[in-house]
Amino acid sequence: MNFQSKAQQDCYQKVAAWLPEICDRVSNPVTHNPIFSLQFGSATVLVEIRAFHESESSIYIWAYVATDVKVSDDLMLYLLKQNNDFRFGGFSMADEGDIKFHVTLLGTSCQQNEFKLALTEVLESADRYDDLIVQRWGGRRAADALFEI
């Protein structure tokens, strides 16, 4: 495993210890990077442990919501307005037309209950908005797109 700092390694080990209690379908899709993949029904959530300064790390929890969506001003305005209403996290666009929902937590101080709440926010938001976005702006639900690979 490639760690950029001791804080990143410590956070990775902490999250790795929590995951079996939360999800029984956990894998490490990139064996040399500190990333976990969690499967919840048809949803896939990725948890990345990132270095953040020498003495800190971040936990980046995310899921694709929809792919191949036609990008428009209307869509961007909608996503920005929705971001204002979330307790944690928000929408972002990794590549044009690929919408994801993510939450970022500080790794060193993160407690298990915070991690579970953030994970739930990602799962529920991806599930809630995938059909809505695809119906209104086109594209495919991320869950459907993943099964075509």
Explain what the structure shows.
The chain has helices spanning about 5-20, 75-85, 110-135, 140-145, and strands at about 25, 35-40, 45-50, 55-65, 90-95, 100-105, 140. The protein is globular and about 45 Å long. It is about 40% helix and about 30% strand. By secondary structure, it is α+β, with helices and mostly antiparallel strands. The mean pLDDT is about 90. Strands 1, 2, 3, 4, 5, 6 and 7 form a 7-stranded antiparallel β-sheet that branches.
| Low-pLDDT residue intervals, each spanning 5 or more residues | none
Order of SSEs, N→C? HEEEEHEEHEH
Distance between the termini: 26 Å
Number of extended strands: 7
Helix content: 40-55%
Based on CA atoms alone, the radius of gyration comes out at 16 Å
Give the strand content.
Answer: 25-35%
Largest sheet: 7 strands, antiparallel
Structural class: alpha+beta
Number of helices: 4
Q: Average the pLDDT over all residues and give the rounded result.
A: 90
How would the global form be characterised?
globular
Give short descriptive properties of this protein:
single chain; 149 residues; alpha+beta; 7-stranded antiparallel β-sheet; 7 strands; 30% strand
Summarize the structure in short.
The protein has 149 residues and is an alpha+beta fold. The chain has helices at 6-22, 73-85, 112-137, 142-147, and strands at residues 26-27, 35-40, 43-52, 56-67, 90-93, 99-106, 140-141.
Secondary structure: elements and pairs:
Layout: H1 6-22, E1 26-27, E2 35-40, E3 43-52, E4 56-67, H2 73-85, E5 90-93, E6 99-106, H3 112-137, E7 140-141, H4 142-147
Antiparallel strand pairs: 1-2, 2-3, 3-4, 4-6, 4-7, 5-6
